[in-house]
Amino acid sequence: MTMEPFRLHILGCGSAKPSNGHLPSCQVLDLRGKLYMIDCGEGAQMQWSRVGLGMTRLGHIFISHSHGDHCFGLPGLISTMGLLGRTADLHLHAPADLRPFVECVLEGFCKEMDYKVYFHEVDTRQYSLVHEDRSVEVWSLPLRHRMPCAGYLFREKPLLPHIRPEMLEAYHIPVSQVNNIKAGQDWVTEEGEVIPHERLTRPADPPRSYAYCSDTLYRPQLAEWVQGVDVLFHEATFGEEYLRRAQQTGHSTARQAALVADAAHVKRLLVGHYSGRVKDEEAHLAEARAVFPETYLTREGQVWEVK
To answer: Which of 24, 41, 42, 193 is the most exposed place for a label (fewest CB within 10 A)?
Structure first.
């Protein structure tokens, strides 16, 4: 049986300045048919149109911090959704200092929209639950940057077990009872025999998880919060030759990102948020893989399966 989608779309993986190679930070998670945007750098709506994701499925945007390369795409995106006739509410999760910017955009350019934007403050000092729906829990990850900054951990909620089709046929179980059996109910035959729920199902697929950490100084404690995630994105703005610059600007090196991934025993590490000083991304990759072999570079247009 095919698992429901949990896909990561890379819309932008550069750092502060757009370049010929990369656009500023922006990602979209497609989880069980719902879309969640993570950061919204300049050019986000153009990239969105290129990947062909429907904006009507976007309900929540999570912003890490108020540096422009992570939020300057918001005005255009919010406005465009209004022009497209959106009526569903949009929820924006971000540090408190982004609120004045969002309110200015809404008051100055989006007064006549047919939908509402709700701002939810994220405490960047706490590892805490910031959003929950029937598909996922989203937790904030305290990062260490030059200003209040949070990463985000997406944990899929456990799925129901799979029904075994051959058992439905063997015991003449109507389709109308499938959901009840998945929820834990046994089946009683016409003869009064009780068929345990465990015999009628097979275990559900394990819940999947994705963590996003950008921008931050190297913080070993992150490994505790993202322990065992399927996919970790960790900023790798600089190479080790610019370690001092990384420390001055509140960023990490490729090697430091790999150290977090290794300590957390994640399955895969994705790196990005490349500085313009990074001229050889393959060397950047090699630096990280020397510590954590399952490291991969991100590039615009990529789609990663979270599994």
So the answer is: 193
Q: List, for residues 41-100, the tens digit of each pLDDT value.
A: 999 999 988 888 888 899 999 999 999 999 999 999 999 999 999 999 999 999 999 999
Type of residue numbered 272: G
CATH of 6-158+207-296, picked from 3.40.50.720, 3.40.190.10, 3.60.15.10, 3.50.50.60, is 3.60.15.10
Determine the Cα–Cα distance for residues 119 and 206; give it in Å rounded to an integer.
Answer: 32
The residue annotated as part of the active site, out of 69, 97, 114, 262, is 69
Cα distances (angstroms) measured from residue 103 to each of 198, 262, 265: 52, 41, 40
Sign of torsion over alpha carbons 69, 75, 76, 78? positive
What are the φ and ψ backbone dihedral angles of 109, each rounded to 5 degrees? Answer: -130, -10
**φ and ψ of 200, to 5 deg:** -90, -10
pLDDT tops 90 at residue 196 = no
Residue 230: active-site member = no
Place of tokens 């948020």: 273
DSSP string of 151-177? EEEEEEPPPPPEE-HHHHHHTT--GGG
* Numbered ranges of CATH 3.60.15.10 in the chain: 6-158+207-296
Q: What pLDDT was estimated at residue 181?
A: 80
